Amino acid sequence: MSDFHYAVDGDGVATITWDIPNKSMNVLSLAGLQELSDHIDTALADASVKGVIITSGKKDFAGGMDLNIIARMKEEAGDNPAKGVFEGVMAMHGVLRKIERAGMDPKTLKGGKPIVAALPGTALGIGLELPLACHRIIAADNPKAKIGLPEIMVGIFPGAGGTTRVVRKLGVMMAAPVILEGKLNDPKTAQSIGLIDEVVAPDQLLARAKEWVLSAKPAELPKPWDQKGYKLPGGAPYTPQGFQMFLGASAMVHGKTWGAFPAAKALLSAVYEGALVPFDTALKIEARWFTHVLMNPSSGAMIRSLFINKEALEKGANRPKVPDETVKKVGILGAGMMGAGIAYVSAMAGIEVVLIDAAQEAAERGKGYSQGLLERAVKRGKSTAEKMAEVLGRITPTTDYAALEGCDLIVEAVFEDPKVKAGVTAQAEAVIPETAIFATNTSTLPISELAKASKRPEQFIGIHFFSPVDKMLLVEIIKGKATGDRAVAKALDYVRQIRKTPIVVNDERFFYANRCIIPYINEGMRMVGEGTEPALVENAARLLGMPLGPLQLVDETSLDLGKKIAVATRAAMGNAYPDGAVDEIIFGMVDEGRLGKKANAGFYAYDANGKRQGLWEGLSDRFPPAETQPELTEVQHRLILAQVLEAVRALEAGVLEDIREGDVGAILGWGFMPWSGGPFGWLDIMGAAKVVEICDRLSAKHGPRFEAPKLLRDMAAKGETFYGGTARKAA
Ligand code: NAD
C-alpha cells in the first residue's frame, strides 16, 4: 500500500495524489518521503510530462510530519544521533530542493517543469513546507482549512525548509507570526499575507492547477532566492532596516520566552544566520539548528506531552468502556463567574443550557457574559450575528428548577459552601431524570463528602474548571469514592464536546492542579518572608519558563482566597499544618487591604485602570531583604520542587493514576514549565538520582517539605525513569 499515487493525463500533466490508506489525515513518514521523491524523479525524467500537480485525496492536504517519527528520530539514529538526525533532515531538504529546481539548469535556471501544490484544505507543518518548495500554491476556498507552521507550539521549529523559505518569501517581519508564533491562517488570510498564491472555489481546484501548469512561463518557475540580485524583503541583517528588525525580533523573543524555550532561540538563530548566506547554505544552517533542537531532551518531552499524550487523553485514553454519553442538555447551577463561563462553552458546543441562579437577575447576568463574549467576537469578525443568536438561543436563564427536566448532566457552580451545595443537589435531583449525572465544580471540597447529599452517589462526580473557563484548556475530572464508570464517561464525553483536555484524578485535598500550585505560591511568599528579594523570586520563576511568578499568581487569584484556603486547610489538618510562616504573610497583606489585582493592590502595584506596574514599593519595609541573597539556582529548585514533589506524592497517593495526565494537566492547568514536558518529564530529564540529591540538600536546609518521596528514592536507586514505565507500574 502506498501513500502517494501517480497518474499522467492525456495533456501530459502528472498528478501526485497524497492519500494514506486508512487514515483521515495525511502525515509524512520516511517511506512516504521516498515515494514522493520517486514520483518526482519519474515525472522529471518523462519527456511527455509537462508539469506536476501535487494534491491530496482527502478533504485536507496534510497535518504535518508524523511527530512520533520526529520523537523517535534521535533514538533510531544510531551511535552518533546528531549526525543521523542531521543527515535525515538534509535528505528531506534534498527531495524538496529537487521539487523546487524541477530539472532546471542551475546556471540559466531554464528547462524546469512547473510543479504546483493544490491544497483542498488544512496544510500544516511539512504539509505546508512541501507546497512552499513548489512553484505555486493554490488552495481551495475552504474557511475551515488551517494553513501554517505550528511546530513551535510543540517545542521544535519548521525544519524542512519552512523557516528559510517563509523568511525569504515574506521577510522577517511578516514571517515572524507564521514561524515564531505558529499562527495558523485560513486560505484567504494566508493569501493576503503572501504565504500562498491563489485561492479558488473548491470545485475549481484541480482544473485551475492544471491550467496553471499548462500556461506557466519559464520565468515564473525559479524562486526569487535562486535568481541574481535577490534581496530579503524588509532587509537583510546588515542593512539599516534589517538591523532594527533583528534587534527588535531578538528582544521580543527573549521577552516572551525568557530564554527558557530552546526552539525559539534556535529558530531565530537559523533565521539570522541563514539570512547572511546563499539559500542552500541557509538550508544547511536550518538543519543544524533543527538538529540542535531535536537533540535537546526538551523537544521530545514537549512533543510527548503537548501532542501525543494530550491527543490520547482527548480521544479517551482513560475513558471507561461504556456506551456513548454525549451531552444533549446541561443544567448549570449558579450563574456566577464560573457558571457563566461554563454556560458559554457548553452553548458554543451546541449543547442546550439551563442556567439557574437564586435570582432571575443573576441568571440573566450569567447569560449576559456569553452575550458580551459573542458581541466582541462579531465585532472582530470572528463570528456572525446569526451564530451569536443561535448560541444565545441555547441558553435559558431561570430560577425555576423545573426547567432542569430532561437534563442529562448537571454542573453545579454555586457558592463554595457544603450546605448550599447540598441544598441545590437535592433540588435538582428532584427534577432531573434518574439517569442524569450530577457534577460539582468545587475547587476545595471533597467530592465524596458532597456526594452524600446525592441520592445517587455513583452518578456524582467532580468536573473542575479553571478560570477563565473560555480560555483555560484543562478540565480536571474527580472521582469520588462511589463514583461509577458512567459518570466518568459522561464527564469525559462532555469535555470532548466543549473541546478541552481532560485529566481524571481521585479525590484528595485540592485534587491535582491546586495541590501542586498552592505549594508553588507558598514557596514564593515564604522566600519573600525570609528576606529573599521579591524580584529575585519572580524572575527566577520566569527564567524557568513559568508564565507567572508566584507573587503575580497570588495577586491574580487574590490573597483573600489564599487566606480562606489557608484557614480551611489548617482546620482540616490540625497540628500537621505546615504553612504557618506563609499565613503570617498572607494574613498581614489581607489585613492591609492588599488583596491582589482585584483590589488594585497586592505584591504588585497597579495603576488606576488596574494595569500592573512594578512590585509594590512597600514590600521592602514589610519584608526587609536579607543581606546575603540566595543563589538563583537554589530559588529555582525550591520553586520547581514545591510543585514537582507534590506531583510525585499525588502519584504515590493514587490521586494521579497516569503520569501522562500529571504532565499534560500541569502544563495546561497552570503553565508548568512547558519546555520540560511537565513535572514527570522534568524528573526524567534531570534523572531521579540528581533530584534526590537536591532534595536532600534542600530538606536539610529548609525542612521536611523537600524530603524526597519514597518512589523517587527507589527510582534513583534502580536508575529508573518515569516514562521508562516501571515507576508507573510501581505506583
Ligand atoms: P460566584 O460567587 O461568582 O458564583 C456563585 C453563584 O452561585 C452566584 O451567582 C450565586 O448567586 C449563585 N448561588 C448561590 N447559591 C445559590 C442557590 N442556592 N441556588 C442557585 N444559585 C446560587 O462563584 P464562582 O467563582 O463562580 O465559584 C463557583 C464554584 O466554582 C465554587 O464552588 C468555586 O469553588 C468553584 N470554582 C471557582 C473557581 C474560580 O476561579 N473562581 C475555579 C474553579 C472552581
TrEMBL record:
Pfam families: 3HCDH (PF00725), 3HCDH_N (PF02737), ECH_1 (PF00378). GO terms for molecular function: enoyl-CoA hydratase activity; long-chain (3S)-3-hydroxyacyl-CoA dehydrogenase (NAD+) activity; NAD+ binding. Residues 329-507 form the 3-hydroxyacyl-CoA dehydrogenase NAD binding domain. Gene3D superfamilies: 1.10.1040.50, 2-enoyl-CoA Hydratase, Chain A, domain 1 (3.90.226.10), NAD(P)-binding Rossmann-like Domain (3.40.50.720). It catalyses: a (3S)-3-hydroxyacyl-CoA + NAD(+) = a 3-oxoacyl-CoA + NADH + H(+). SUPFAM superfamilies: 6-phosphogluconate dehydrogenase C-terminal domain-like (SSF48179), ClpP/crotonase (SSF52096), NAD(P)-binding Rossmann-fold domains (SSF51735). The keyword NAD applies. InterPro entries: 3-OHacyl-CoA_DH_NAD-bd, 3HC_DH_C, 6-PGluconate_DH-like_C_sf, ClpP/crotonase-like_dom_sf, Enoyl-CoA_hydra/iso, FA_oxidation_alpha_subunit, NAD(P)-bd_dom_sf. Keywords: Fatty acid metabolism, Lipid degradation, Lipid metabolism, Lyase, Multifunctional enzyme, NAD, Oxidoreductase. Pathway: Lipid metabolism; fatty acid beta-oxidation. GO terms for biological process: fatty acid beta-oxidation. It comes from the Bacteria. Residues 511-606 form the 3-hydroxyacyl-CoA dehydrogenase C-terminal domain. In the central section; belongs to the 3-hydroxyacyl-CoA dehydrogenase family. This is 3-hydroxyacyl-CoA dehydrogenase.
